[in-house]
């Protein structure tokens, strides 16, 4: 049960904050932060209890249960989500009032925002704790839904609405693909429970198709090429959203999935090689874009794409440092995002080219963000150093080409981080008002954590090992320490610093050329493809809509013609086609046939009838002829009824004609009889089909019908007239229903033709 | 022509109604039943509308309250169908039951089917008369409806 | 007999469909009446081969299937009720659109659709 | 609770309401109370339906075939429950949204409820037709509710096209009787097992087309966009949420239960029609400007999903069809009602129902779609699985484009507390089922348990 405690506390945060917010707007953030810290405390306590699992019944029909796990991976990611979450919520207390004021929205909306952030945090904790494929997907889509609401929080802003929709569709679509993969695996192994799936997969590796589906879901979430383009657009969201979702939470979910499911991927070298390639491409693309982007949130977004590329490479290589990498990256990136938000709030600017020289006015922020930047670019004495160490370690085992790629990547990271920090704080002095303390404090806390990790790397070893063990299913031997020797990792790190510094120093020389090249290539990117696809679908949709049936006639024909064709086809291809019986016509039938002929003639004549009155008379002529048919067919009850109905109906029709304005009738009449060829064809198909289908049915008459039994029982029903007995007694329920139909029609008539006035 | 049609139609009304009633009563034994009875009675009233006009036709209570009459008819029908369930019978059990003796006065058999058919008659009468009445009311130009 | 009866059913049905496909409300209503008639005819056509005395319970007489008769009666009544409703609807629709022609209905509908498609813009 | 309870209550209530003026508040509340009572009766009946012997009676205690048999097995009761609940929600909505403007509205809604209950409970083919007509006639009369020209236009289209469908259905039932000599469904099943496999093909074809018109899948759907767009929002919710259930129920009852041999032959056709409907509906929904039209096309694609599920071989497909129909019914009602007036609560309800329609957890629609996906993958039908994934994505896009485009997003018009409560309740039901799917899964699994001869 203690496994649930952090989850329950995390789930309780949002409602508690909401309630607190109802009391006083400012209280929501503190309540939320308190709740998440409590959850963090519970997590730490639980950590001391060692690994465990909890299974609760859920949906036995599908053999599903709520399965939670407590292992290194879930602990590490939960701690990350809860810790950063608490800081971001506090930060938003200082950030949102200003933001809402600028957007012209009521200050109360701040509570809604914080509630959503906390809900997202809960979803994230849920995601990393569950131990079931279906539940993984459920939690994954929960994060998608809440991120949609968060990214589109500024709902007046068309750009942020579009960004929200883009991220919803892209991450939603990829997660549905993930679900298809999960379903395939679940069906294949006969369970959705993750430990069982992994156990069974050890003997019977998962199919490549399913793994690719799972990987697509993860790539979409982690904003990797080719699904990366939603992330830069999502920067339209308020900064706390970016700093949480796009550093520690949402994008981490994708890589987390791959780590959680790593045992499935381990034997599939082909899929892993593909992931490796995607990781390197994302790394390169993200880093290069980060080098030229101007809005500083975009720089950070591209950097996130690149950094998760690193993490992807680590997972694909099966390195035990993969969870650690994500966990160290998160506070660095979150701190930088928070810095960016603070700078925007203080200066009102969003682009690197518009700010600079803020180190004098915002000294604490500058210092703290310098630590975060150092962490991101893996300088020693920060925790970030170790994220690159494990990275280089993994690459070094694969060979020089990989090492070179890693070196370039790390060099680029340093270059764009320097560019960002220098762009914000370096350069000629500029004075701005001081930032609110609450805006700076979370950055400082994060910076402190990064420093602590850098100075005392021993603290990181235990969680990193536990997480690696959970990911790879074998005990980990990960070592984190500073070694002052010439091992490959150290050489690569030094090489990367040199490269980064060189790139930064010479930035004016290559920036314009690089931006031109990148601009050129973006024309062929996946974003362009996505837009083109959407555009084509839109055009197809509009074209179909224009072509679609609008006329009542075509709507009727669209029912009758397919039915007719289907009926003809059924008669044409099945053995029914040989079984038509012509039947015999004796002398006794002559009257019947004549009456039928009369009815048919009258029906045909209606088509030629010019005037409405003549039309109505011909229709009633059909009816009376049919009544005659019924009389000759020894069905006097039906005959009597149909005579009376026909009479009433003719009079009603006449009444209707009297109601209609004569000029309109005249006008309609002139226009009416211009049949289109396809109307004739439709009627022909429908009629032919009706003819053949009824002929077929009449050829298969069952001689022994229930009707005979009713005749026997009529006496018991005290009714000499069998038809009356059937109507009122045997099938009386039909008659009750039929009479209710009449009353319902009557209600319709009375409401359509109301006594007094209209409406 | 105009002079003798209205009196004639008024004269015809009562015989038609009596025929309708007999159709109803004899429904269990021979051709007839509630539906033709109701339609016939409706037709008789329709004749009044055609010849004497709406105001004259609405002298009869049954015509003015035709629509509620249909409701009463439906109550009768549903009641006959479902009241037996109170006594533990299946719905649509009519009395006398198959094993019970018939109760009859002369050629007329008393049977709950009669009530059932009576309900039918009222419903059909109500529909026919109401539709006619509403059509008659609307005849003679009215303003157009407009709006989107 | 089968052939003749089903021919008549097919013909009535074809005429009905043809009428429903006309451009005018009254004719559409007439068409539905014809279609209903054709299905009632089909119901009773099932009892043509063995038709006999409907009212007799005496042994040995051929009897027209009473179940089919009652189905036909029910179908007639329901058809009547629905047609009455359709007639009033014809009246109201023509008053609302100022025309008996179905093309006017289409025009009015298209106008609304295009207003919706354009009005909101991108 | 005897079986006739949930049938009798709305019936009698409908008759009583026919006398009263539905515009008065107490009359509307009476109708609401009656429908709620019906719902209660059905819930009461629920355990009996799950018992060894489904509750049944034969009218007048006549022998089987002569009298009409009514029977409430699991399939009947779950459809009846959901449809009545949807009707109840819609009626409450219309009443609290500003009052009913027509005298006969509550009576007609209750008659619609009686007709639907009868359709779901009856075990007699012709009685099915009669109840079907009762529901249809009530819907015909309701379709013009509001009585503006566009409502009348929608009503006219609806009536004429659906009359064709009803005629097809009547013809099919008569042919069934002529061929098998009985109208009792269980007897027809017995006949079909003994008889030749092709004999029921003709009525089967007509039934497919008739229910196609009701459910609105390609190519029988062309009436649907116009009617759903032009009819009043409440009416559209009634038609799409409750009445369309007749189509899915009818296909399950007649296709799977009564004529499994015909169904076996129709499978390829159903798959093609289903796939076409899914594609057609989703693509057309994509760039519509009018939210109602988006919803109309989304419901066409949803109908396609149901058909495709029926077309799959084996049990799981049928379970998926039941789950899709039930979840879709609530989804569509919530969507049509929520888009009516706007406001914060309606927006939230809309987004929940939209997520459910697109199959995003944690909503009921997710489980239904998951079931379809599961059935498709189990059968190795990757093409259909891909189609489901594509449809989910595109409908997500289409529904949320509409969500963002609507003026409500900007204005956030104040919504009446009561209407908000109704749409909230519907979306809450979707979420609760999403979080605890066992009832839906049980319903889907058990509903097809007693049907015909399954492979």
UniProtKB/TrEMBL annotation, chain A:
Residues 676-754 form the MrpA C-terminal/MbhE domain. Its main location: membrane. Residues 131-413 form the NADH:quinone oxidoreductase/Mrp antiporter transmembrane domain. It is a multi-pass membrane protein. The chain crosses the membrane at residues 72-91, 111-128, 134-153, 165-189, 209-231, 243-262, 274-292, 364-386, 401-422, 443-468, 556-574, 586-607, 614-633, 639-660, 681-698, 736-755. InterPro entries: CPA3_Na-H_Antiporter_A, MrpA_C/MbhD, MrpA_C/MbhE, ND/Mrp_TM, Proton_antipo_N. The keyword Ion transport applies. Coiled coil: none annotated. It comes from the Bacteria. It is found in: Cell membrane; Membrane. Keywords: Antiport, Cell membrane, Ion transport, Membrane, Transmembrane, Transmembrane helix, Transport. GO terms for cellular component: plasma membrane. Residues 598-661 form the MrpA C-terminal/MbhD domain. Residues 63-98 form the NADH-Ubiquinone oxidoreductase (complex I) chain 5 N-terminal domain. PANTHER family: NA(+)/H(+) ANTIPORTER SUBUNIT, NA(+)_H(+) ANTIPORTER SUBUNIT A. This is DUF4040 domain-containing protein. It comes from Corallococcus aberystwythensis.
TrEMBL record, chain B:
Keywords: Cell membrane, Membrane, Transmembrane, Transmembrane helix. Pfam families: MnhB (PF04039). Residues 8-130 form the Na+/H+ antiporter MnhB subunit-related protein domain. PANTHER family: NA(+)/H(+) ANTIPORTER SUBUNIT B, NA(+)_H(+) ANTIPORTER SUBUNIT B. The chain crosses the membrane at residues 35-53, 65-90, 110-132. Belongs to the CPA3 antiporters (TC 2.A.63) subunit B family. One of its GO terms (cellular component) is plasma membrane. The keyword Signal does not apply. It comes from Corallococcus aberystwythensis. It comes from the Bacteria. InterPro entries: CPA3_antiporter_subunitB, MnhB. This is Sodium:proton antiporter. It is a multi-pass membrane protein. The keyword Iron-sulfur does not apply. It is found in: Cell membrane.
Automatic annotation (TrEMBL), chain C:
Its main location: membrane. The keyword Transmembrane applies. The keyword Ubl conjugation does not apply. It is found in: Cell membrane. Keywords: Cell membrane, Membrane, Transmembrane, Transmembrane helix. The chain crosses the membrane at residues 6-21, 28-48, 68-90. It is a multi-pass membrane protein. GO terms for cellular component: plasma membrane. Belongs to the CPA3 antiporters (TC 2.A.63) subunit C family. This is Na+/H+ antiporter subunit C.
TrEMBL record, chain D:
The chain crosses the membrane at residues 6-22, 27-46, 75-93, 105-122, 128-146, 158-178, 198-223, 235-256, 268-287, 349-368, 380-403, 415-436. GO terms for biological process: ATP synthesis coupled electron transport. One of its GO terms (cellular component) is plasma membrane. InterPro entries: CPA3_Na-H_Antiporter_D, NADH_UbQ_OxRdtase, ND/Mrp_TM. It is found in: Cell membrane; Membrane. Residues 124-338, 351-394 form the NADH:quinone oxidoreductase/Mrp antiporter transmembrane domain. Coiled coil: none annotated. It is a multi-pass membrane protein. It holds the Pfam family Proton_antipo_M. Keywords: Cell membrane, Membrane, Transmembrane, Transmembrane helix, Ubiquinone. One of its GO terms (molecular function) is NADH dehydrogenase (ubiquinone) activity. The keyword Transmembrane helix applies. PANTHER family: NA(+)_H(+) ANTIPORTER SUBUNIT D1, NADH DEHYDROGENASE. Belongs to the CPA3 antiporters (TC 2.A.63) subunit D family. This is NADH-ubiquinone/plastoquinone oxidoreductase. It comes from Corallococcus aberystwythensis.
